[in-house]
Structures are given as structure tokens and as C-alpha cells.
Design a protein that fits this description.
Length: 299
């Protein structure tokens, strides 16, 4: 009888694929059984995204308790794995004496900032967006007041921010944190967090690598296949990454002046201001972007 890992994913953008891949790896590489649960958002659409996700997990705890007890009766449970918003569900694991882990689907840099939030909150009197002193993370460039995630820049009296702060405190009492990164990408992993007793485990990169049969004859792929090996720069900031018009223009100029072949996945800048930037675009499905990144011509 195989030990089973129960994984709970909140309704946050960008969490589905890493959780699905982690589940698959636990089964394929470690001989475990895995059950992946989804917390459904039931709050009104007008509710801030982060708050909706937190409510989804909190309201799902009774059902999660039922599922955990049912699974535990059929096979031994090895662990409960949640995302950073799913920490309220860890008390279910505690009731059964099962270890609980947080799977942080973003890189270590973001997690390092997240773990520092309680200290920043205690030492700052102003809103984080108004801070004059930058945040220093070992191994990374200084983070200035306008650069942290939006949830951190919300009013400190808002439900979004207070929920984020509560998660940053609670994540320190789990049995371990899994991070979607690897040391060759982030050598500073684990540095600069004195007093953090939670083990940090790099488990990445966990991205979708199994391709489905779509977009095989896309114009972009036909062009890419004609280029020399490792001659094309591929630029993408993921499903949630957007730049201002100014930064988009700067990146465009940098790519042009590099005199390198490139494929750039461009999203509409989040600042709707006028710009002299003109881009010639081709529409790509995201699965096509994956095929691009796996081509030998990219490097």
C-alpha cells in the first residue's frame, strides 16, 4: 500500500500547472500516491482576487477535513501540501498528526520578500508604497517602493494586506516549504533569513513539459525551425507578467539594438498611456509558447 500525499490548491492564477506537475512527480519519481484538491472561489466577483482565494480555502476546510479522514482510512497519509494561501487547512493535518508543507509556486526571491513582510510591517510606520528605504534581499538588486507585488502595496488596513501578513506569519510554522526554483538559478536560496527554522526545499523547475497536439504548423514555429541552433532569444514574463509602456519600449529597444533574433511574448502594458511604440505582433496560444521555449534554436 502506497503512502499518499494530499495537495490543496487555491484558486490563484499560475498555481494549477506547478501543483499538477508536483503531483505527477511525486507519483512518477517517488512511488507515492497523490490526490490534488481544488478550493473553489464562491465570493462575489467584485471581491479582490487575493481575498476571494483566502475565502475559498477557509470555506473549504470542513470539506477538506472529510476528504482527509476518508483517505486516511484507506491508506496512510504522508503529508498535506498547500499553497501559501492554503495555510488555514494545515490544522486538518495537525488533527491527524500529518506533516504539513507549503508549496510556493514562485521563485525564491518572491518567497524571501514574503517571509520578510512581518519584520517590515513591524519596523515601518508608513505604507510600503511610500517607503524611502529600499528592501535589500541577499543576492538580488535593491527593491524600491513601487516594485513589490500589488498585494504588498495595498493599504495596510485593507483585508488584502492583513490577510497577506497573516499568511506570512503562519507559513513559518509549517514543517517545510517547497519552492519552485533550483540553486543554479537562485544561488542565494535560503540566505539572509536568520531565525527561520522552517526547512526550505527547492523542487523546481515545475512547469508543463508534456505537449499536446496543437499549433504544430504555426508561422512562428516554422520561422524558428529555420534559425541556427541557440541563436534566438526568447522573452516571456509568464501569464501574470506585465510591464509599463516605458519598460516595454525600453525592452523593445534593447532587443533591437542587440542585433539578435528574438521571439517576444508581449502583453498589453498595464498603464494605458500613449506611446510611440509600434509592435508587429502574431497571436500565439500559450501552448505554442511552450513549444518555442523547448526548441533547440532558443538559447
Amino acid at each position: 500500500m502506497r503512502w499518499r500525499v494530499l495537495l490543496l490548491r487555491s484558486p490563484c492564477m499560475g498555481h494549477l500547472i506547478p501543483f499538477a506537475e508536483l503531483s505527477r512527480r511525486l507519483v512518477a519519481d517517488h512511488g507515492l500516491a497523490a490526490t490534488l484538491l481544488f478550493a473553489a472561489a464562491t465570493s462575489p466577483p467584485s471581491t479582490p482576487v487575493g481575498v476571494r482565494a483566502m475565502h475559498a480555502v477557509i470555506f473549504s476546510v470542513p470539506r477538506i477535513r472529510e476528504v482527509v479522514r476518508s483517505l486516511a482510512a484507506a491508506a496512510p497519509l504522508a503529508a498535506l501540501v498547500v499553497d501559501m494561501i492554503g495555510t488555514p487547512a494545515r490544522r486538518v493535518a495537525a488533527e491527524l498528526g500529518v506533516p504539513s508543507y507549503v508549496f510556493f509556486t514562485s521563485p525564491w526571491m518572491t518567497l524571501s520578500l514574503f517571509l520578510r513582510l512581518p519584520k517590515l510591517d513591524a519596523t515601518r510606520s508608513e505604507e510600503h508604497r511610500d517607503a524611502t528605504e529600499p528592501i535589500c534581499l541577499p543576492g538580488y538588486a535593491l527593491i524600491h517602493a513601487h516594485e513589490p507585488p500589488r498585494s504588498m502595496l495595498a493599504d495596510r488596513s485593507s483585508e488584502s494586506y492583513t490577510g497577506l501578513l497573516a499568511m506570512a506569519k503562519e507559513v513559518r510554522v509549517v514543517d517545510g516549504i517547497l519552492v519552485n526554483t533550483f540553486r543554479d538559478l537562485e544561488p542565494a536560496l535560503g540566505d539572509g533569513l536568520e531565525g527561520l527554522e522552517v526547512p526550505i526545499h527547492p523542487v523546481g523547475p515545475l512547469v508543463l513539459t508534456r505537449l499536446v497536439a496543437v499549433d504544430r504548423d504555426h508561422e512562428c514555429l516554422r520561422w524558428l525551425d529555420q534559425q541556427p541552433r541557440r541563436s534566438v532569444v526568447y522573452v516571456s514574463f509568464g501569464s501574470g507578467g506585465t510591464l509599463t509602456w516605458q519598460k516595454t519600449a525600453e525592452l523593445a529597444l534593447g532587443l533591437e539594438f542587440s542585433h539578435r533574433r528574438f521571439i517576444w511574448v508581449v502583453k498589453k502594458p498595464h498603464q494605458d498611456t500613449s506611446s510611440g511604440l509600434l509592435l508587429k505582433k502574431k497571436r500565439l496560444q500559450w501552448i505554442t509558447c511552450l513549444r518555442v521555449s523547448l526548441r533547440g534554436q532558443v538559447g
